[in-house]
Amino acid sequence: xxxxNGNDLSRIGIAIPEGLLEQFDKLMARKSYTNRSEAIRDLxxxxxxxxxxxxxxxxxxxxxxxxxxxxxRLINDKLVDMQHQHFHQIVSTLHVHLDHDNCLExxxxxxxxxxxxxxADRLIAARGVRHGKLTLTSPSVI
Length: 142
Hints:
The chain has helices at residues 18-30, 36-52, 75-85, 113-125, and strands at 59-69, 90-97, 102-112, 129-137. It is an alpha+beta fold. Strands 2-3-1-4 form a 4-stranded antiparallel sheet. A hairpin with a 4-residue loop joins strand 2 and strand 3. The chain is elongated, with a radius of gyration of 19 Å. The relative contact order is 0.20.
C-alpha cells in the first residue's frame, strides 16, 4: 500500500535517550535535513521499502554495482552473456574504466524481487568480480 502524499499528517510523540538524539541531530545536519520530522519519515520509508524488497513476488527496481578485473580471462564476455540471458530483468548498463586493471559496471534491473536477486547473485559470483552490491527499491511503497 503506497504511503500518503503528506497531506494527512499525524502528530506523534516519541521518547529518545539524549545521547541518541544528539547523534541523530548530527546525522541530520550532515544530510542537510531541516527538521526531524522529515528525517524520521525518510527512515520509516527506507525501512518499509527494504521490508517490501524481501518479498520474492514484489515488483522492484534496483542497481547492481560491480567492480571487476578486466584482465580476468573472458570476464567481459561472461558478464555480457549473463546479461543477455536475463534481458527481461536488465534495463540498462553503464561501464566505466577505473584504472588499468579495474572496471566498474552499474546494471539497472527491474522485475520480481526474487528473480532480480538471483540475476544479481549470478553476476556477483562471476569469477573476476571483486565486489558487487545490489540496491533495491519498490516503487509501489514510496
